[in-house]
């Protein structure tokens, strides 16, 4: 078997095309959506992700406002930058790029974001609405990677209802909210959320119809762990060196041999990452439409 490729680049392009019409409609009402980003420090991955978010905004006609603080910034500097983004009328939605440098309390910073401007769906009010099951197209933003994963499955007609999903990793941006989203009415998956203390990870993966690997361990998920035909979403990424041309060499969480056993497989790069960025744009447009 050679798995069907879950093409995140093509799907993200389709979503961006859909958004341009909504952005034009907003502008005709005098509303220009604007995404703010707050980056603290110089982590190469975060620098590249933030740069990508600004490129995406330019592509679809969303204004973008970039705030960068040095790695030496204090927690008070970060609080001040968040307060300024909350007050900036050009910013209709914004994100605080994670992870923040050691010593800055991430949860405390996320709580300072105005929930109406939370483009990542990571403010406790918006995560709370996910727990409560508040639904509807414009209800509240969903975290971008979980929403991107569900959208990728939906657009490739991979069924979720009654299916068993094993999620590897319980992080804030992927695993934890994804478990909640997949068990929503209408998606209706049964979810096993695994983590570093899970006793027999291979066995948990083997019973899954859909596997989501979001742990940051290169090539952790092996072909012989899989139920033949399972859909596999490779989310985690590790920088494992440099190419001769000076570009970062990336490794996903899924062994390439999985393509011979899986029914569907998202490439990494080119799978869930571009979907994360596209769903961020959607959150920004949704927030501007709520104004
Ligand atoms: N505030 C947030 N911080 C972080 C989030 C998040 O959703 N909100 N998620 C990740 C990083 N992330 C978004 O910020 C992200 C990761 C990957 C990609 C992406 O497009 N990846 C490309 C490869 C890019 C490369 O060459 O490095 C791909 O998969 O094709 C976009 C965004 C942690 N922090």
From TrEMBL:
Q: What does it catalyze?
A: (6R)-5,10-methylene-5,6,7,8-tetrahydrofolate + NADP(+) = (6R)-5,10-methenyltetrahydrofolate + NADPH; (6R)-5,10-methenyltetrahydrofolate + H2O = (6R)-10-formyltetrahydrofolate + H(+)
Question: Which GO terms are recorded in the biological process aspect for this UniProt protein?
Answer: L-histidine biosynthetic process; methionine biosynthetic process; purine nucleotide biosynthetic process; tetrahydrofolate interconversion
Keywords (A to Z) from UniProt? Amino-acid biosynthesis, Histidine biosynthesis, Hydrolase, Methionine biosynthesis, Multifunctional enzyme, NADP, One-carbon metabolism, Oxidoreductase, Purine biosynthesis
Residues involved in NADP(+) binding: 169-171, 237
Which ranges carry the Tetrahydrofolate dehydrogenase/cyclohydrolase catalytic domain? Answer: 6-120
- Do you know which SUPFAM superfamilies this protein is assigned to? Aminoacid dehydrogenase-like, N-terminal domain (SSF53223), NAD(P)-binding Rossmann-fold domains (SSF51735)
* GO terms for MF: methenyltetrahydrofolate cyclohydrolase activity; methylenetetrahydrofolate dehydrogenase (NADP+) activity
Residues covered by the Tetrahydrofolate dehydrogenase/cyclohydrolase NAD(P)-binding domain: 143-290
The protein's Enzyme Commission number:
1.5.1.5, 3.5.4.9
Q: Pathway of this protein?
A: One-carbon metabolism; tetrahydrofolate interconversion
Q: What CDD domains does the database record attribute to this sequence?
A: NAD_bind_m-THF_DH_Cyclohyd
Q: Which GO terms describe its cellular component?
A: cytosol
InterPro entries in the record, alphabetically?
Aminoacid_DH-like_N_sf (IPR046346), NAD(P)-bd_dom_sf (IPR036291), THF_DH/CycHdrlase (IPR000672), THF_DH/CycHdrlase_cat_dom (IPR020630), THF_DH/CycHdrlase_NAD-bd_dom (IPR020631)
* Subunit comment: Homodimer.
Similarity remark: Belongs to the tetrahydrofolate dehydrogenase/cyclohydrolase family.
Function as written in the Swiss-Prot or TrEMBL entry: Catalyzes the oxidation of 5,10-methylenetetrahydrofolate to 5,10-methenyltetrahydrofolate and then the hydrolysis of 5,10-methenyltetrahydrofolate to 10-formyltetrahydrofolate.
Supply the name of the protein.
Answer: Bifunctional protein FolD
Its gene is: folD
């Amino acid at each position: 078997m050679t798995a069907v490729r879950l093409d995140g680049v093509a799907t993200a392009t389709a979503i961006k095309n859909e958004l341009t019409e909504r952005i034009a409609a907003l502008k005709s009402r005098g509303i220009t959506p604007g995404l703010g980003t707050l980056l603290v420090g110089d982590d190469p991955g975060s620098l590249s992700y933030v740069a990508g978010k600004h490129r995406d905004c330019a592509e679809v006609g969303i204004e973008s406002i970039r705030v960068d603080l040095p790695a030496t910034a204090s927690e008070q500097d970060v609080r001040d930058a968040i307060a300024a983004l909350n007050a900036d009328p050009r910013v209709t939605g914004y994100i605080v790029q994670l992870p923040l440098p050691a010593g800055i309390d991430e949860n405390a910073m996320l709580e300072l974001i105005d929930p109406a401007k939370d483009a990542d769906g990571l403010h406790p009010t918006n995560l709370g609405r996910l727990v409560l099951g508040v639904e509807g197209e414009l209800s509240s933003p969903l975290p971008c990677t979980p929403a991107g994963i569900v959208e990728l499955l939906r657009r490739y007609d991979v069924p979720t209802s009654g299916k068993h999903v094993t999620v590897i990793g319980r992080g804030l941006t992927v695993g934890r909210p994804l478990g909640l989203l997949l068990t929503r009415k209408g998606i209706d998956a049964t979810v096993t959320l695994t983590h570093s203390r899970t006793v027999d990870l291979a066995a948990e993966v083997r019973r899954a119809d859909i596997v989501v690997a979001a742990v940051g361990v290169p090539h952790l998920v092996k072909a012989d762990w899989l139920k033949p035909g399972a859909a596999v979403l490779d989310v985690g990424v590790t920088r494992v060196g440099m190419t001769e041309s000076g570009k970062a060499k990336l490794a996903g969480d899924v062994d390439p041999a999985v393509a011979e056993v899986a029914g569907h497989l998202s490439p990494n790069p080119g799978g869930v990452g571009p979907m994360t960025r596209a769903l961020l744009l959607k959150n920004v447009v949704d927030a501007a439409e709520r104004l």
